[in-house]
Amino acid sequence: TPDWGKDEEKNNKGKADEWAIAGEVTSRRQHKVSKADIAQAKEEYISLDWDDVFPKKPKERLRWLYKAFQAAKEGRVKARPLFDIVAHRKFIEGLKGSVATDTLNLIRGNLTIFSAKQQKQLTSDNFELFRKYAPINVLDSDDDEADAPPLPPPPPVVIEPKDKKRKAAEYEKEKAAREEEDEGHSDEDMETKRQRILAKGVERRVDPADGQAYTITDFISEYGGTVDRPPLEWTNARHTSFFFKS
């Protein structure tokens, strides 16, 4: 019996395969990686290389830790290498003041990522950061240390993206420039304006993180906030305030 239609069926099958391959090639060619995709990939990438993490400045290490914990929760990094970095003495080297406190609060707030043994190490006096910056329970002389109540939960730590801080700093600079321009439209003569501006001076406060004096714009650039609603670090440093006059 002749195989009617078999040749045609083979031809159709061959054409279908060609169409499928052509479709795959077309879809590959049409897929383009945008700048936004690249930026997002860079933002989401978390390096666990010690040579990348340890040389970072204290505030950048805090920012890295915040992103690393987010990645760990999403399953993008493993807990063990993250623990090895956090527990290393080089990671906490140079951490002081609010940066050290925020780092510890961030660790305490994400302890569930680690194993029970790792949690115990990070909440013991063997961990230098915990020993220096953890809240202290005040006990009566008759109380047993083992009966001490548990530490209060750590406050949430929010790290704003760099670009958001940059925009805030730019906004404050523009605002200061507008105010200075407005002052120039008054009826005062130039010498009076100059004396008034010099008398006002520039307020600076000491950041306990590094012991250096900064303006409110510097604080906003580092910690966020606005002039009307300055960051907590600026408010807490009011006792260090002084006016710099040129």
Task: Please give a structural write-up.
The chain is mainly alpha-helical and 246 residues long. Helix content is 55%, strand content 5%. The chain has 12 helices and 3 strands; from the N terminus they run H-H-H-H-H-H-H-H-H-H-E-E-H-H-E. The chain has helices at residues 6-30, 35-44, 50-53, 58-73, 79-86, 97-109, 116-122, 128-133, 162-183, 190-200, 216-223, 232-236, and strands at residues 202-207, 212-214, 242-244. A 3-stranded antiparallel sheet has the order 2-1-3. Strand 1 (202-207) and strand 2 form a beta hairpin. Helix 4 packs parallel to helix 6 (97-109) and helix 9 (162-183) packs antiparallel against helix 11 (216-223). The longest helix is centred in the first third of the chain and has 25 residues, at 6-30. It is globular, with a radius of gyration of 29 Å. It starts with 5 loop residues before the first helix and ends with a strand.
List the helices and strands and how they pair.
Layout: H1 6-30, H2 35-44, H3 50-53, H4 58-73, H5 79-86, H6 97-109, H7 116-122, H8 128-133, H9 162-183, H10 190-200, E1 202-207, E2 212-214, H11 216-223, H12 232-236, E3 242-244
Antiparallel strand pairs: 1-2, 1-3
Helix pairs in contact: 4-6, 9-11
Task: Write a brief caption for the model.
The chain is mostly helical and 246 residues long.
How many helices in DSSP terms? 12
The major β-sheet equals: 3 strands, antiparallel
> Whole-number radius of gyration?
29 Å
Strand content: under 5%
Strand order within the widest beta sheet: 2-1-3
Shape: globular
Structural class: mainly alpha
The run of helices and strands is: HHHHHHHHHHEEHHE
Q: Quick check: average pLDDT?
A: 77
N- and C-termini, Cα separation: 107 Å
Helix content: 40-55%
In total, the number of strands is 3
User: Ranges with pLDDT <50 over ≥5 residues?
Assistant: none
